[in-house]
Amino acid sequence: MNQPPVPQQDTAERGPCHYCGEAYEPGDHARHTEPVHCGPCITCVDKPPCFSCRLMYCVCDVHRYRG
Ligand SMILES: [Zn+2]
Ligand SMILES: [Zn+2]
Ligand SMILES: [Zn+2]
């Protein structure tokens, strides 16, 4: 028997976030995973609130990049 221990993949629930790259707390889960049906901007529609749309013409209040 020479089976190496399987590493625990413990990060599925707790980031880092696909969209903003932050490792988020469980309490912040919704902000990073709940889709927002924001509007006409096809780049950011259905992205969670943490996503920053870098499209110059984005008119979306939720996702517009505030640099
Ligand atoms: Zn995020
Ligand atoms: Zn948006
Ligand atoms: Zn956008």
How would you describe the overall organization of this protein?
The model has no long low-confidence stretch (mean pLDDT 85). The protein is 7% helix and 0% strand. It is low in regular secondary structure. The protein is elongated, with a radius of gyration of 16 Å. It binds zinc ion (3 copies). One zinc ion (ZN) binds at residues 17, 19-20, 22, 32, 50.
Q: Low-confidence parts, pLDDT < 50 over ≥5 residues?
A: none
Report the span from N to C terminus: 55 Å
Give the SSE order as H and E letters.
Answer: H
The total number of structural domains is 1
- Overall 3D shape: elongated
Rounded Rg: 16 Å
* Estimated structural class: little secondary structure
Proportion of strand residues: under 5%
Mean pLDDT: 85
Descriptive labels:
67 residues; little secondary structure; 0% strand
Which helices and strands appear, and what pairs or packs with what?
Blueprint lengths: L28 H5 L34
In short:
The chain is largely without helices or strands.
